[in-house]
Amino acid sequence: MITPKDNDTFVRRFRKKMSKKDLKFNSRTIHGGQHPDKAYGAVMPPIYQTSTYAQTTPGGHQGFEYSRSANPTRTALENSLASIENGTYGLAFASGLAAIDAVIKLLNPGDEVVSTNDLYGGSYRLFKQIFEKYGIVFHFIGMQSIAAIEEKVNDRTKLIWVETPTNPMMNVIDIKAASALAKKHDLLLALDNTFATPYLQRPLDLGADIVMHSATKYLGGHSDLVVGALVVKDKDLADKLYFIQNASGAVCGPMDSFLTLRGIKTLHVRMQRHCENGKAIAEYLAKHPKIEKVYWPGFETHPNHNVAKAQMDDFGGMISFVPNGSSYDDAIKIVEKLEVFTLAESLGGVESLAGHPASMTHASIPKEEREKSGVVDALIRLSVGIEDVDDLIADLEQAIG
Ligand SMILES: *Cc1c(COP(=O)(O)O)cnc(C)c1O
After folding, report:
1. Is 40 one of the catalytic residues?
2. Which residues contact 305 (CB under 8 A, 6 or more apart)?
3. For residue 16, is pLDDT > 60?
4. Which pLDDT value is given to residue 6?
């Protein structure tokens, strides 16, 4: 029988053997924060489908008491998340929105938040329709101008919430400059890294305090789960977030933790292909006579291309475009004709998806508010998957006509 003491030696040995700090990103997606399971040496962490853990005497346990507080499969995922984001502490939640909810719960009534204006529709809804009720004040602004952020900062401001590239307009916000501003005014900087993933951009290295993910998207990568994540470096901040995670209880379950962890192991391989296919499709659309506008940070003509080049290693597979004429009906016709692209919410899976923000992901944002940031009725958003790019282009060709 393996006693707890032997277990610890076992774990320590493997930790030492694979000292993860030295590994490069493409190895950390696979090994970061991981060690073979204590019980039988399983290479993949088992799905610990249990709510509770036997104790030999009150408090006599192996670090796990109750699965809301901690579960070994979730811990394995949380360690992986910390490793790939160059952080120290990872926290896995039941959804991306549950992760954002935990961050905003750091605040008190009267506190103010400066946020990106064209952010994910669900984040906007959470801020406006849930947290404003509790007296937290949100300012939504175009963050391409750092001066515009500073204009909104006052002595009640506590948090800057950044999403970059933004959804669905693909604006790019300068993370280093935003973090310098946050430090100057003693604010927290939280960054939604869902679109870029740590394969393309590492916000903690650029000075952000909190990285957030909808792991539902690229990290999971297979459109088979809904999971959220936070990663931080600072212990005090990690303790506060952990307290909220446990007290509010929106944790990631063991099965979803396992699937997310499995997804992360191929993140770098998938992202490489998402970027290649994304580039080919962005260039195809830009040349198409029936397309009016294409939004993709890889274009030299993109207004924030230089910032994107400085803070991202490549430009990703998210593209938005507007067909000629810019009518609601034209956009609907195109998305309905697509065959290889699936018309669906979400993004970041192996399969290509097309979405119509005005009627789908961003329907919860008032039209007037939406159009201010460029989310017009005819805008179509693509999440370019990892299929053969020739098939994807042929599909767009027949749909655009
Ligand atoms: C999907 C998404 C979220 C919300 O995450 P869920 O997992 O759906 O709760 C937040 N931010 C961005 C950028 C997203 O794409």
Report:
1. no
2. 172, 297, 298, 299
3. no
4. 47
Q: How far is CA 310 from CA 21, 206, 303, in A?
A: 24, 11, 14
Over the stretch 219-248, which tens digit does the pLDDT of each residue have? 999 999 999 999 999 999 999 999 999 999
- What is the amino acid identity at position 187? L
Q: Is 197 in the pocket of ligand 1 (CB under 6 A)?
A: no
Any atom of ligand 1 within 6 Å of the Cβ of 97: yes
- For 267-400, CATH gives 3.90.1150.10
- The rounded distance, in Å, linking the Cα atoms of 401 and 398 is 5
Cβ of residue 217 lying under 6 Å from some atom of ligand 1: yes
Q: Is the CB of 267 under 6 A from ligand 1?
A: no
5 is catalytic: no
The ranges assigned to domains in the chain are: 1-43, 72-264, 267-400
- CA 101 to chain CA centroid, Å, is 14
Residue of 214, 222, 225, 345 to test ligand 1 pocket, by largest number of atoms within 8 Å of CB: 214
CATH of region 72-264: 3.40.640.10
